[in-house]
Amino acid sequence: MKMTEKATDKQKKFMDELGLEYPSTITKIEASKLIDEKTGSKGSKKPFSNDKNKNIVAQVLTKCYCENQEAGKLTRDDVLTAYKYFVEAL
Question: Choosing a second label site near 21 at 20 to 30 A (CA), which of 11, 12, 36, 90?
């Protein structure tokens, strides 16, 4: 990865979901650092290690459920199971 490569759309979307502010010229490396700081991961295997981050996980899973429910891609039980696994991994 080059030091000057622009952040990916996926990184930008995730930063938006996390409520992060960032410049339009942000690089992949800078975006990665911001995300790590916000999620507390910093290379950790347990990025969702506090209540605030558990809340973010719940919000993201809820959003995924709402966006996919009409298409029949996810059920409420799918989301609850995913959340359970996230919490147990902490």
Answer: 90
Cα separation values, 45 from 25, 48, 84, Å: 29, 9, 17
With contact defined as beta carbons under 8 Å apart, do 65 and 78 qualify?
yes
* Res 22: pLDDT: 93
Q: What's the pLDDT at 45?
A: 47
- pLDDT score for 59: 74
Q: Which residues contact 53 (CB under 8 A, 6 or more apart)?
A: 39, 40, 47
- Choose among 86, 33, 90: nearest CA to 64: 86
